[in-house]
Write a structure and sequence with these properties.
This protein has two domains: 4-112 and 182-303, Rossmann fold (3-Layer(aba) Sandwich), CATH 3.40.50; 120-178, Histone, subunit A (Orthogonal Bundle). By secondary structure, the protein is an alpha/beta fold. A six-stranded parallel sheet has the order 3-2-4-1-5-6, sandwiched between helices. It has helices at residues 16-27, 52-57, 74-89, 102-110, 120-133, 135-145, 147-150, 158-171, 199-215, 218-224, 240-246, 252-274, 289-303, and strands at residues 4-9, 31-33, 60-61, 94-98, 189-196, 281-284. The longest helix is centred in the last third of the chain and has 23 residues, at 252-274. The mean pLDDT is 94. Strand 2, helix 2 and strand 3 (60-61) form a beta-alpha-beta unit.
């Protein structure tokens, strides 16, 4: 039988973890997490990481395997995940991958573009430029240096702007010139499935999940990492809002409402990202596991 990666995608709170556990049980498979927030061992509550019971029900990889203080990025994950998938395929032709971090999912399935090493001083100067002159200044500069990438990335995301600009400045070439140079090949076939729901239902689930996180101790968890607030790993929904509460800038009620709002916005971006993959088979969130397994079994036979 050929080797397969079953990739489960969809917005946060839709039920991906639950489905991955059921599929892992059915196929006796291991699970690769592609949720970049769940990599960090110090913040399990705010990242909705699988519970200890869930982790014991199937073998997981890339859950709590690094610290918030570690320097880990999509390139590192791309390399590590492919190594682990190959190892997991030794014992089973089917491996499950689950997560809502679109960039990390795509890295495994489609590969990543290789960039030359850039002098870190350039990034430091760009960060100063951002803090002193504002994001619009970076946007204008990127539009001049690489109009193609300016029109294709989220120019409201300062990290994406800085990444593109540091490559332009460090190489004297457009960032876009390094993209899609070679066709990426894997030694496995990917079957991509997604879970979807009406937007109102997704938003209700998100609001309830945040309330549950607060009840389960998110405040104490955020307070325990507050001194590391400047780390990029903590520049994420659920923590940056509570840091403002700890600073006395916001009330707790407002901070929680902002977590809900920003998580809903994140879910909307996830849907947009994953809809770009036309090969994904979408199922309603309440589709029976038996129906999904039936579809997967047919795909496994067709492609074997």
């Amino acid at each position: 039988m050929d080797k397969y990666l079953i990739s489960i995608v969809g917005p946060t709170g839709i039920g991906k973890t639950n489905l991955s556990l059921k599929l892992a049980t059915n196929y006796n498979s291991e699970i690769i997490s592609s949720d970049s927030r769940q990599f960090y061992k110090e913040i399990p509550i705010g990242t909705a990481a699988p519970t200890l019971l869930e982790l014991k029900s199937a073998k997981h990889h890339f859950i709590h395997h690094i610290s918030i203080k570690d320097n880990y990025n999509v390139g590192s994950f791309h390399k590590d995940a492919n190594i682990q998938i190959e190892k997991s395929h030794y014992s089973n032709p089917v491996v499950i991958m689950v997560g809502g971090s679109g960039l990390y999912v795509d890295a495994v399935i489609n590969g990543i573009d290789e960039f030359p090493k850039i002098d870190p001083e350039i990034r430091s100067l760009l960060k100063i430029q951002l803090s002193t002159l504002g994001i619009e200044n970076l946007q204008i500069e990127l539009k001049k240096l690489d109009p193609n990438i300016y029109n294709s990335i989220d120019i409201k995301n300062p990290q994406r702007l800085i990444r593109a600009l540091e490559v332009c400045k460090g190489t004297n070439k457009p960032y876009s010139s390094f993209l899609n140079r070679e066709k990426y090949k894997t030694n496995f076939k990917t079957i991509s499935i997604g879970l979807k729901a009406e937007r109102r239902l997704i938003y209700d689930r998100i609001n309830n999940r945040v309330d549950k996180m607060i009840k389960n101790g998110l405040l104490d968890e955020a307070r325990s990492v507050f001194k590391y607030r400047d780390l990029n790993s903590l520049n994420t929904v659920g923590y940056k809002e509570l840091f403002n509460y700890f600073d006395g800038k916001w009330t707790l009620e407002y901070a929680v409402s902002e977590i809900k709002k920003n998580t809903r916005r994140y879910a909307k971006r996830q849907v947009t990202w994953f809809n770009k993959n036309k090969k994904t088979k979408w199922f309603e969130h309440d589709t029976t596991t038996a129906e999904i397994i039936s579809y997967l079994n047919d795909e496994l036979l067709i492609n074997s």
